[in-house]
Amino acid sequence: MSSPVTLSVALAQINATVGDLAGNARLIAQAARAAHAQGAQLVLAPELALTGYPPEDLLLRPAFMAACQRTLQELAAELADCAGLHVVVGHPQDWDDGADLRSKSYSLPRRFNAASVLAGGQVLATYCKRELPNYQVFDERRYFASGRDAGRGAVVFEVGGLRCGLLICEDAWFDEPAEAAKAAGAEVLCVLNASPFHLDKHGEREARMAARARAVGLPLLYAHLVGGQDEVVFDGASFALDAQGLVGARAPSFEPATLMLEVGADGHVRGPVAPLPPLEGQAWHALVMGVRDYVGKNGFPGALIGLSGGIDSALVLAVAVDALGADRVRAVMMPSPYTADISWLDARDMAARLGVRYDEIGIAPVFEGFKQALAPQFAGLPEDTTEENIQARIRGTLLMALSNKTGAIVLTTGNKSEMATGYCTLYGDMAGGFAVIKDVAKTLVYRLAEWKNRQPSRRADGSIGPVIPERIITRPPSAELRPDQTDQDSLPPYEVLDAILARYMEEDQGIDEIVAAGFARADVEKVTRLIKLNEYKRRQAPVGIRITHRAFGRDWRYPITSKFRA
Questions:
Q1: pLDDT recorded at residue 265
Q2: Alpha carbon of 370 to those of 12, 220, 367, 375: distances in Å?
Q3: Are 17 and 24 in contact (CB under 8 A)?
Q4: Would you name the residues annotated as active-site residues?
Q5: Among 19, 130, 297, 361, which residue's CB has the most CB atoms within a 10 Å radius?
């Protein structure tokens, strides 16, 4: 009796860069050659691995599409000497196979989100994605036609005696594409993915894929992208499920990897199974990867942070050092007449623990100069938030001047709770190039700081210990722009604010529904009113890392001018 067919597979979890066609092809080729040397017969690269994801309006440029087709052919030729190897690559494909479409008018986009099978120097087959997501951060119907629109059916190919059916990301969340692949003879489902991260997304992802594997009675291989691209982060954690939906192999999260595994015609899957991080670990690694890739892929030499002695800037500094290294991060303390002594002490302490360059630039003389210049215009008027905002804008100007002079990017330190309610200053603390914790609510800021301090971290003096001074975590939060100020002078307690924010902004609950859940109507109406009033500020905020299923940015497209208040 012959033994069951077993196929050696590699899931190439690469960190692609949007638009770097040659670089992405090189990553795919390197992973494929390394896997082939280890005996792999099949290599799966992620969705749109050739272009990076999402390529957005690059897809509308004929020159870009033509370059994609050339690069795909070149990649096939590059791997021609890998005998017996099949490589599946995600890429965009013109409906008209590269014809000039500029003079034509169609009701549907004339390109597909595709996956091609490369072997022997040739493109053997091309599958076109059928289910196109158009929610949250996805906008695929702007760019792609469904494979159904052109009558493109299932693609099944044989490798080493096993018949493999192709799906792309969203296809595997629906019944029909997988059933069509099985009907065409597939014995294993190969799913290429670029699924943007949000907290606990991996659990939802694996559960849905397990249900798909059980429904069709086939093992399922899930090749996933890793890395940061503007707002979104891809967490990797590629995996393989047996025919019963059980995890048989999993790649590490938040790092490039090539996951080697075997899958059999009898439905078994075997390979290493990396653990999944806890929620705070997920958030931390997503922020670190988001900063590292935004700074690195855009060519900034380093980062600047306005360090205040408060919790938000402390968290951003710790993330930045983990992402870039202490030698590429610079902290600047800019005390005002209202800065407490403990803020100076804690900022100096933290900078010393992390070993970053630390500078102090007092803003009192500049602040006095502004007040004198404006004194004739402000005569007879009391001090208010105007003077507070002037301080914030002085700091923003100083940081941007240092950025211009050195080339380093300013990382802003505002959190999601502040962005939601407008507790931030345009051209002040919002001034900068990348908003690291833009999607991190204040209560999560504290949890992440405490989580980081529980991790064994090597400090600049060689000791192992917490990197965020404990007093930064325990003292009441304050903008320190007027005497004895605390955040709760202007906002409800953050536990209340963040709970209302999650229900209203992330879950789309209405005011009455939130009140019915036990929140004071005054708090609910205040928070929701502030969310609506400050849309104009958020439109002018830097891009920032998305870690929840709904962030301010691509997920949130509300009008600035609107009279709807429920």
A1: 86
A2: 56, 64, 5, 8
A3: yes
A4: 47, 129, 169
A5: 130
